[in-house]
């Protein structure tokens, strides 16, 4: 399996369309405490996007993606409505996401210049503006496909300096990451990872920290805890999950989990269940 597919399966990305149709006037997009992004796909018309001290003018069919929380306002001439689809992007109810962190603050892509998105966007607009049974769910899934295509675009563009995606395109670090991602139950010594990357131990640590944004040790713990969270949400017992991500003792797993989330596994899972019940 290619590494991007593996990451997309591990780091869940879900979409929820909250608007589709003709927008007149203005609409505010607020952010709360959760890690969420927003995507706007303009089909027709013109759109202004206002941030704190910045304005984006979208004058042709385009895709606009804010990977992280960013309060903004959509402004449209009341006499010339804009036709668009807007969705919220969530990263598995996590407080941090390597995928979100790896992307630029905003992505604006004119659709005419990026035909690789056209088939998915044509289907999205068809479901949005010619709705039928199941259209709401289908639109959500199509937006999730768009996010996957955007991540592929970012990797293929190969102008990323830091973050997980930059590691995937690094000629040496990508080899170590492939080994590290292969099995969350294993804990590889630094020497093994450095050897996989054909680097010295010192060079590997320095390069990994500079490109990925965290030390190999911290990244490995983050990877294990994120995998553990997915297993916990599947209903697996805490003891079983601890063993599955390579912890020989439940107390060691609890300490690592708390160091990353400020909660015990049970507290975190109870919070997820409350969020699910509330939604």
> How many helices does DSSP assign?
12
Describe the sheet with the most strands: 5 strands, antiparallel
Instruction: Determine the structural class based on helices, strands and strand pairing.
Output: alpha+beta
Q: Order of helices and strands, N to C? A: HEEEEEEEEHEHHHHHHHHHH
Helix percentage: 40-55%
Oligomer: single chain
Poorly predicted residue ranges: none
Count of distinct strands:
9
Shape: globular
Mean pLDDT: 87
Give the percentage of residues in beta strands: 15-25%
Radius of gyration: 21 Å
N- to C-terminal separation? 34 Å
What does this molecule look like?
With 279 residues, the chain is of the alpha+beta class. The chain contains twelve helices and nine strands. The protein has helices spanning 3-10, 98-102, 118-129, 135-157, 164-169, 173-182, 190-196, 201-212, 216-233, 238-244, 250-261, 265-278, and strands at 14-23, 25-29, 36-44, 47-50, 55-58, 62-66, 72-76, 82-90, 107-110. The strands form two sheets. It has a five-stranded antiparallel sheet, with helices on one face. It is globular. It starts with a helix and ends with a helix.
